[in-house]
Design a protein that fits this description.
Blueprint: E1 2-8, H1 27-34, E2 37-42, H2 49-57, E3 71-77, H3 86-89, E4 94-97, H4 109-121, E5 128-134, H5 145-152, H6 168-180, E6 232-233, H7 239-269, H8 272-275, E7 276-281, E8 293-294, H9 303-306, E9 310-313, E10 323-328, H10 333-340, H11 355-358, E11 369-375, E12 378-384, E13 388-395, E14 406-409, H12 425-444
Parallel strand pairs: 1-5, 1-7, 2-10, 3-4, 3-5
Antiparallel strand pairs: 2-9, 6-8, 7-9, 11-12, 12-13, 13-14
Length: 445
């Protein structure tokens, strides 16, 4: 077995067409999803890069059951400042650097140059794990003016509501609907024909337009992408800044998707679409102002931070187009890798093998997903069920505005804006008790 993992660090699931985004072009990832099993509710257990790496591998690479039986290659296509801890690099059979070069037009140019030769060297290896990490979606971004201008000319990006914008009557109706709602898997089937078809970046000529920057007096001034938005608080009421930020990121996603398409073409040209499994996932989603922060400035466990892509393309596109609505989490990747290679799960291993889900043999591996993160002097934990998301502060800095738990109806409240806890205290208390019990179990392992 050959397995190729693309770790797209900082990638929020909600920005991809495969997860319902209909205004950002990601045709190559959309095609991949159409050939794959897409896990719709892949929720981070801890949206922290180091925690994700530990969850993905289940142990130090040198102690993994794969060590010694499977050739393992790690490709670093990231900047040094986003490197993993040293322990993560120990035990791989080879760590291959394809780091961004200062003279390149794109941070992935070095990987695109080296990738064919790397695949050629692996051509005669019967069993290998090829792990590719990139920080392409983490600021500072590198994106062409032409792609950005295409989004300036495009329709307006969807903006989340600001504040509790529903009336009490609307919220009550929503609560009743949520309690009665059941997930209809047939409605969630991926429709390949409905996927947005976006031309390859390299074959497209984009119109050049002007766009007014926040606080720019001259409307004729040509606007460049916001390539380096600072980590920290963001004023969601500043719609000009919101548009600038989101159109810039949309251009990054589309450019990145075109680059991934070139990598996918190399895999297909060598028959690895038939003989290998491909996996696309992320360590966390980079927040872009949805709840008043850019980047991970506070451990606020909202959807944009914790909802991650997980797309698994089995050899020969087995189970193509299947969508899995069950809750999955990053620790499930390790036992899934072991199952792909036919290796046994360690007795103290965590997570679940997802292949039975991917093949439709079972419907669920867990009834809910829990998440926890501590950052500086703040901490939060969360639980997500079929109908609810509860976020509970665990460490509250002095003067912090988030001092009470928040309850959101799912899946209706996509943006997690309408806090329904005060009208559902009993339900919130039940969920918090479930959450605390589960966190105690995890801490005891």
């Amino acid at each position: 077995m050959r397995v190729i993992v693309f770790a797209l660090n900082g990638c929020p699931a909600g920005w991809l067409g495969a997860y319902g985004n209909d205004w950002v072009g990601s045709p190559n990832l959309d095609r991949l999803a159409a050939e794959s099993v897409t896990f719709d509710r892949h929720i981070s257990d801890s949206p922290d890069p180091e925690a994700a790496r530990a969850a993905w591998l289940g142990a130090l690479p040198s102690r993994s059951p794969l060590h010694g039986t499977t050739h393992t290659v790690l490709v670093r296509a990231n900047h040094p400042d986003t490197d993993a801890p040293e322990w993560f690099y120990a035990g791989w059979d080879r760590v291959f650097d394809a780091r961004p070069q200062a003279e390149d037009a794109s941070p992935l140019d070095q990987l695109l140059r080296e990738f064919p030769a790397l695949l050629d060297r692996l051509a005669d290896v019967p069993h290998y794990l090829l792990w590719i990490e990139t920080d392409r979606l983490i600021p500072p971004w590198d994106v062409s003016q032409e792609v950005f201008e295409a989004y300036v000319a495009d329709e307006e990006p969807e903006r989340p509501p600001v504040g509790n914008e529903q009336s009490e009557e609307e919220a009550e109706v929503e609560e009743e609907e949520v309690e009665e709602e059941e997930v209809d898997e047939e409605d969630e089937e991926f429709d390949e024909s409905a996927a947005r078809e976006t031309p390859n970046i390299e074959d497209t000529v984009f119109p050049v337009r002007t766009y007014r920057l926040p606080d720019t007096d001259s409307p004729e001034e040509l606007v460049t992408p916001w390539n380096d938005p600072p980590t920290g608080p963001f004023d969601r009421s500043d719609l000009d800044a919101w548009d600038w930020l989101h159109r810039s990121f949309a251009a990054v996603v589309t450019t990145f998707d075109a680059e991934l398409g070139r990598l996918f073409d190399h895999l297909r040209a060598r028959g690895l679409d038939q003989s290998a499994a491909w996996i696309v996932t992320s360590d966390y989603g980079h927040p872009l102002g949805e709840h008043g922060q850019i980047g991970v400035d506070r451990p606020w466990l909202h959807q944009e931070l914790v909802h991650l892509p997980l797309i698994v393309r089995l050899p020969g596109a087995e189970q193509a187009g299947r969508r899995v609505s069950a809750f999955t989490q990053p620790p499930d990747l390790f036992p899934t890798l072991l199952a792909l290679f036919g290796s046994a799960m360690p007795k103290d291993g965590k997570g679940f093998n997802l292949l039975p889900l991917a093949r439709g043999e079972i419907e669920s591996v867990r009834g809910f997903a829990v998440t926890a993160l501590e950052l500086g002097d703040a901490g939060e934990m969360a639980i997500r069920t079929e109908n609810w998301a509860l976020l509970v502060p665990t460490r509250i800095p002095e003067g912090d505005r988030r001092s009470e738990p928040m309850l959101f109806a799912k899946p209706d409240d996509r943006w997690e804006v309408n806090d329904l806890r005060t009208r559902n205290i009993e339900r919130a208390d039940e969920l918090e008790a479930m959450l605390r019990e589960e966190m105690q179990k995890l801490a005891a392992r």
